[in-house]
Write a structure and sequence with these properties.
- This protein has 160 residues and is of the alpha+beta class.
- It has one domain: Bacterial Protein-export protein SecB.
- 38% of the residues lie in helices and 38% in strands.
- It has a four-stranded antiparallel β-sheet with strand order 1-4-3-2.
- Strand 2 and strand 3 form a beta hairpin.
- Helix 2 crosses helix 3.
- The longest helix is centred in the last third of the chain and has 30 residues.
- This is Protein-export protein SecB.
- Keywords: Chaperone, Cytoplasm, Protein transport, Translocation, Transport.
Length: 160
Amino acid sequence: MAENDNNTQEQQAPQFAIQRVYLKDSSFEAPNSPKVFTKQWQPEINLDMNTATTTLDNGVFEVVLTLTVTAKNDSDTAFLVEVQQAGIFTVTGLGEAELHHTLGAFCPSILFPYAREAIDNMVNKGSFPALMLSPVNFDALYAQQMQQKAQAETEEAPQH
């Protein structure tokens, strides 16, 4: 009997594995070149982030982190770069809330350095100064998103 209990515990123990990390899509545009190169470089950088998760199989998920960086110099768009950095992750043995957190915060934090490097490489190849994006606290962003979701659900709940 004790042997069966051990097997059950092993099967239910949380497991996490990175199957693959890959660049799913990328684009770079410098719509105002060469004009943008004639101005003093004082860019205004805007970063938009998004994540999406797709279930591929039982316990196997694709997480896609999309980063879009827009650099404006004066009022002109100097460059626009978008990267979809993806990963396939095996995640088993977690409760629904833990799984949601893992896919929504932990996996994007793994993908971010790859996306940041891809963006920096494209910006450099576009002849712009290096762009090293600051680290992102995906746990804090996830907590903020969950708080906003809970607040929205509370506001939508019918008042008695």
